[in-house]
Specification:
The complex is a heterodimer of chains A (about 450) and B (about 450). Chain A is an alpha/beta fold. Chain A is about 40% helix and about 20% strand. Chain A contains 15 helices and 20 strands. In chain A, the strands form four sheets. A seven-stranded mixed sheet of chain A has the order 1-2-6-5-3-4-7, sandwiched between helices. Chain A has a five-stranded antiparallel sheet with strand order 16-20-19-18-17, with helices on one face. In chain A, strands 9-8-10-11 form a four-stranded mixed sheet, sandwiched between helices. Chain B is built from 15 helices and 20 strands. Chains A and B meet through α1 and α2 of A and α1 and α2 of B.
Chain lengths: ~450, ~450
């Protein structure tokens, strides 16, 4: 079979393999549809560090210009910063050329609506309808604008984060921090944030030329260098961002990668200790969140995967904190978005106020073992396989909100087709690593056999 | 009706209707697919739609793995010069030349700095129609250089080729109207090099066109009154990419754009005798000028690509047409408005004559031009129909229908840039020329109902 080059269009935007499924034509069409959807007005345009970023950005600019929008180029910036600026500038929206943590040969477009939020499901549908109908409202030549450029657009965002933290307490501790920016957009702001917080820093992978030193997902297997450097530098902790800097993973002072889900647990614990309130997380977040919530007697609301789903529920519930188990912390005090910079601030504040090293703090959350795995599978087959799995387990305690999640008293497994790549994701959590591994293996095997039958 | 015209070397249309980001990307990607690896230059005139088109074109060229040098607002002749000077693989000039502001176009330039020839043009279209473009995976960031103000090297080359000292010595006072196009601002530099005092109007590259950017008497009123008011030596009108020029004499007479060729040829052929290439639609004045210098006149289809290619193939010394666009073998194979202006001044300086005196040496013909809007699918069949008007006459089908009559000629052709039929007649008698045009217009209107 000829290799298929997927173009994934989902609530998270569009992603594809550059030169194969993601071409300037596609980018210009999406931008034209988005410009048509938003109507004339300011639209921020940002990018991550991928080598194809400028090529695709130019196509996006063209599409926005043709539909009468006023593009504002903000350059390479973290996604949370662009979300923040969209709201601050009261722009109509933003387009970011990024494929987040996908491999380097990928790129994509993320679409941000007014208020600096990702498009909601209903908005995505309206927007995609325009894209598919292909009837774009191109304006007459004399109404076409010229793009504006904005330098140092990230300052406002940093100022907002610092205004919400106990900066003096953090500075007093003079933390030694090793930060791995994964050669991503985070390198534009994280160093400055750490400086402002009085940290002594060692920065790695801050080169923005678009060559990734390691895969940009901040999972333990990609953080070998960071762990080593933390020990060498005798740091208090290590920070790992993903390429668009919405997710954060931690390494403790002994050089052990703590797993992304711990970032959320620590942040939730810290925020609830000061200001209890509802917590919103997605289906894949650790059971540690439930334990924390019951300690503070606040409800936990679980949503589908996808930042906007969490954010919508947070706004509805007036949540104190929320996020996703993949290291995406949402603290509405700064803004309602996953933000590795905000998460960095929260973690440092927590360490500054307690007197324990990170390894000791983390140990309190170590009773659960969350394992992740994935399997290649074309999107359509993936959905059919998951539907079949639902049928087989319908008598269990299941959630079909997003894929299939089966819960037992002290463990769960979550199987779902990815929104952004042609893969199926498996997550399992229990009190023992062996048990979690077994759960994943069992369901992987079962999905494989279902796919064999379906295919 | 959606207007989109493909010609040999480019694609032209109404912005937002047919000139859309996607169409631009498809054509630019086809161009990138056709060219070998290397640098491609991209420049534009000042039209408001220029950036939209430029971003799309650059995106496509980066996608096909080329290095791109973005020249920003830059006249087409300078882009063409820089292609050779930089040894670039090619260039795209984003300009609709003399068309109104709502139009724009991609003009494709090969590594020789000329518009694509017929074979290259058809290869480009084949790739475009097939729709399979050589998009690259871009494992490394492609090189994109932004280079504004690249005209210095061009002006220094040009002024070396002109008899600049003599022009400077003549201390001309010049009025110029670049129509807020790509030549705006640059004319200050250019005439500065030539020691001229410049009075410029519409000299901001804002893309706001105070009149259609077509150099011809209809648009020359402002220049003519300034020439008279300031006692200037002459006036120049430019189109939006400085590929065409028309002239205004020191008396304020607004000369038809047809005069640019014979005036410049009358001088240039003295320096560089050789065949003159022109189009079927161009005034017969050039025949008398050529006869005086004993050189042949070769007539081709209308348009820069056909004229310049013929000049190169037939060893012509200059190529030019009645629109005011001229290319010179000893300069560059491109319609170059700066070279034209420089040579007009040089002719006046060397011969020590006023422009009105240079005109006087030319035979007086009267040329009448008209056009009829016509649905694109009927253009050529209607042109063919007009053959019936001329039983027994000598006709030429090279480009529409060209008829040679006693004391007059008529040329009826489909425009290659707009859905129009153009009718041109010339005769020593003004009323005769008008009569010939009216006859065709009436006939075509009857057919169009």
């Amino acid at each position: 079979m000829k290799k298929r080059f997927p173009l994934k269009v989902s609530i998270s935007g569009v992603r594809g393999v550059v030169g194969e499924s993601l071409t300037p034509q596609i980018a210009a069409r999406f931008a034209s549809a988005f410009g048509t959807y938003l109507g004339p007005g300011q639209v921020l345009v940002g990018q991550d560090t991928r080598p194809s970023g400028t090529m695709l950005k130019k196509a996006v600019l063209s599409g926005l210009l043709a539909t009468g929008c006023q593009p504002v180029e903000v350059g390479v910036l973290p996604i949370p910063t662009i979300l923040f600026l969209t709201r601050e500038r009261q722009a109509r929206g933003a387009v970011v050329v990024t494929a987040s943590h996908n491999p380097p040969e990928w790129n994509g477009l993320k679409f941000i609506g007014p208020e600096g939020l990702y498009l909601r499901r209903s908005q995505v549908e309206e927007f995609l309808d325009i894209f598919h109908q292909g009837q774009f409202t191109f304006v007459a030549a004399e109404r076409i604008k010229s793009p504006l450029q904005e330098k140092n657009a990230g300052q406002l965002h940093l100022e907002k984060i610092l205004s919400r933290l106990k900066v003096r307490a953090i500075r007093r501790r003079g933390f030694r921090v090793v930060a791995d920016c994964a050669n991503g957009a985070g390198a534009t702001l994280l160093p400055q944030l750490l400086r402002e917080l009085g940290c002594e820093t060692l920065l790695i992978n801050t080169d923005l030329s678009g060559q990734f030193a390691h895969q940009s997902e901040p999972v333990p297997e990609n953080l070998g260098e960071l762990c080593r450097r933390v020990k060498e530098f005798r740091a208090d902790l290590g920070l790992a961002q993903d390429a668009d800097a919405d997710r954060l993973a931690l390494v403790d002072e002994r050089g052990r990668a703590l797993g992304e889900d711990l970032t959320l647990a620590l942040s939730v614990s810290h925020v609830l200790s000061k200001k209890p309130g509802p917590v919103v997380v997605n289906l894949s977040a650790s059971m540690a969140i439930d334990d924390l919530a019951s300690r503070y007697r606040v409800p936990v609301i679980r949503t589908r995967i996808g930042e906007i789903n969490v954010v919508e529920a947070m706004q509805e519930q007036g949540a104190a904190i929320g996020g996703e188990g993949n290291g995406g912390v949402i603290w509405p005090e700064v803004h309602p978005c996953r933000d590795s910079l905000t998460a960095t601030g929260l973690v440092l504040e927590m360490l500054a106020e307690g007197q324990k090293p990170l390894s000791a703090v983390a140990a309190e959350f170590k009773k659960y073992h969350l394992l992740k795995a994935k399997m290649d599978c074309p999107a359509e087959l993936a959905f059919r396989a998951v539907v079949e799995l639902r049928r087989r387990y319908q008598s269990e305690n299941i959630s079909t909100l997003d894929g299939l999640k089966i819960s037992w008293p002290d463990s769960w497994v979550h199987i779902r087709p990815s929104n952004t790549e042609p893969i199926i994701r498996f997550l399992a959590e229990s009190r023992s690593p062996v048990r979690s591994r077994k759960l994943i293996d069992k369901f992987k095997k079962e999905i494989k056999s279902i796919i064999k039958k379906l295919a | 009706m959606k207007l989109l015209k493909l010609n040999i070397s480019g694609v032209r249309g109404l912005v937002g209707q047919t000139i859309t980001p996607e169409l631009v990307i498809d054509f630019a990607a086809a161009f990138g697919t056709m060219l070998p690896k290397g640098t491609i230059l991209v420049g534009r005139d000042s039209r408001k739609s220029g950036l939209m088109v430029q971003e799309a074109a650059i995106s496509a060229l980066l996608s096909t793995g080329h290095e791109v040098t973005n020249l920003g607002i830059c006249p087409t002749p300078i882009i063409q010069f820089l292609v050779k000077q930089r040894r670039a693989a090619g260039a795209i000039s984003i300009t609709a030349g003399h068309n109104p502001a709502e139009w724009n176009a991609l003009n494709f330039i090969n590594d020789q700095g000329t518009y694509l020839n017929e074979f290259q043009g058809s290869e480009l279209l084949d790739i475009y129609h097939l729709g399979r473009f050589a998009h690259q995976k871009l494992k490394k960031s492609p090189t994109l250089i932004t280079e504004l103000n690249s005209e210095e090297v061009y002006f220094s080359w040009l002024t070396q080729r002109l008899r600049t000292d003599e022009i400077v010595r003549a201390r001309f006072k010049v009025v110029a109207d670049p129509c807020n196009g790509a030549g705006a601002g640059l004319v200050n530099k250019f005439f500065g090099f030539l020691g001229c005092e410049l009075i410029a109007v519409n000299n901001e590259p804002s893309g706001y066109f105070p009149h259609d950017p077509e150099p011809r008497p209809r648009n020359a009123g402002e220049v003519a009154s300034l020439v008279r008011a300031t006692g200037a030596s002459l006036g120049f009108l430019l189109n939006s990419d400085v590929s065409r020029v028309s002239l205004v004499t020191e008396t304020g007479e607004t000369l038809s754009e047809e005069y640019t060729l014979p005036i410049v040829a009358g001088y240039y052929l003295e320096k560089q005798p050789g065949p003159v290439v022109t189009s079927l639609s161009t005034s017969r004045m050039i025949d008398e000028v050529a006869a005086k210098h004993r050189v042949p006149v070769l007539r081709t289809r209308v348009g820069q690509s056909a004229l310049v290619q013929t000049m190169l193939q037939e060893d012509g010394t200059l190529a030019g047409e009645g629109s005011g666009g001229l290319a010179f073998r000893s300069f560059q194979p491109a319609f170059d408005g700066f070279a034209v202006m420089g040579l007009v001044l040089e002719a006046m300086a060397v011969k020590q004559k006023k422009l009105s005196e240079l005109i006087r040496t030319l035979p007086r013909y009267h040329i009448v031009k008209d056009k009829i809007v016509c649905p694109p699918h009927r253009l050529h069949s209607l042109v063919a129909e007009t053959r019936k008007l001329y039983p027994g006459a000598e006709v030429n089908y090279l480009d529409g229908l060209h008829v040679t009559l006693k004391d007059a000629w008529v040329h009826i052709r489909a425009s290659s840039t707009e859905p129009l039929i153009r009718i041109i007649a010339e005769s020593p008698s003004a009323s005769r020329a008008q009569l010939e045009v009216d006859k065709v217009v009436a006939f075509l209107n009857r057919l169009l109902g």
